[in-house]
Design brief:
Layout lengths: L1 H13 L2 E5 L7 H14 L4 E5 L25 H12 L9 H8 L3 H14 L2 E4 L2 E4 L12 H10 L3 H13 L2 E3 H8 L3 H13 L3 E5 L5 E4 L2 H9 L3 H11 L1
Parallel strand pairs: 1-2
Antiparallel strand pairs: 3-4, 5-7, 6-7
Helix pairs in contact: 1-2, 3-5, 5-6, 6-10, 7-8, 7-9, 7-10, 7-11
């Protein structure tokens, strides 16, 4: 730790820096203890430690004088309207979808995006992002009641090949490399590449790097969580064993 502390302080003397740590609610005890030392190291330097976490995460360092918390509140009515117009477009046929989506999602931007994507994949919407039109009667449009529900529905609509690949990737972790996935995927390289491209196009995963090996990450931790929970325990165990 002393080396990391010296590194942070030395870097701060040259120029300002930002350290970003995502999703602390998933952190393991060892990493959490290390993070607490980092909090001490950045105090009095020109380094900003930026973290995000769900309300259930707690740590002693959040009571320190140099800590400031900025709650991320749900979008207000105007923000919801703006986001939905950006995603759906201005076609008159989508106007009647605004209110039910607003009521169900309660200003959660990720939920809003996933609902619109799900409606497009289910055939209720036609067109492209920002230029959709509704082709299903409003009374027949089903707006999912939770983020987990919409993610489960999206995963279930995948082809069997893509669904199994996503589930195996979820066992590996939030981030995964193509070589490791190849070891457990049981797919020819061409099919694997095609499935990864399809999952990326569906915005379930995103490409993080191409060199020295292809690296991917789930778009959101909840996507990984739902994909992990959607498979039988025995299948998860076999994939874990293969990865290990």
């Amino acid at each position: 730790f002393a080396f990391v502390q010296r590194l942070i302080r030395a870097r701060s003397e040259r120029e300002p820096a930002v350290l970003l740590v995502d999703d602390l609610h998933w952190i393991d005890p060892g990493s959490d203890a290390f993070l607490a030392r980092i909090v001490e190291a950045v105090s009095g330097t020109r380094t900003l430690l930026l973290v995000n976490f769900r309300p259930e995460y707690e740590a002693d360092w959040t009571r320190k004088s140099h800590y400031q918390q900025l709650p991320l509140l749900p979008l207000g009515p105007e923000g919801i309207e703006e986001l939905l117009r950006h995603l759906l477009g201005e076609d008159p046929s989508v106007t009647e979808l605004l209110e039910p989506i607003r009521e169900r999602t309660r200003g959660n931007p990720f939920f809003i995006e996933e609902v619109v994507q799900s409606l497009a994949e289910s055939g209720s919407l036609e067109g492209t992002r920002g230029a959709y039109r509704r082709v299903t009667p409003v009374a027949e449009v089903v707006v999912p009641t939770s983020v987990h529900t919409v993610l489960s529905a999206r995963i279930d609509r995948l082809s069997e090949r893509e669904k199994q690949l996503l589930q195996k990737a979820a066992v590996i972790g939030k981030e995964f490399s193509q070589p490791i996935l190849e070891e457990v995927a049981e797919l020819p390289s061409v099919e694997l590449a095609g499935a990864l491209a399809a999952l990326s196009a569906a915005e379930l995963i995103r490409e993080e790097a191409l060199y020295p090996v292809a690296e991917y990450a789930f778009k959101h931790p909840l996507t990984q969580e739902v994909a992990l929970g959607s498979q039988l325990r025995e299948r998860r165990r076999r994939t874990h064993a293969a990865v290990a």
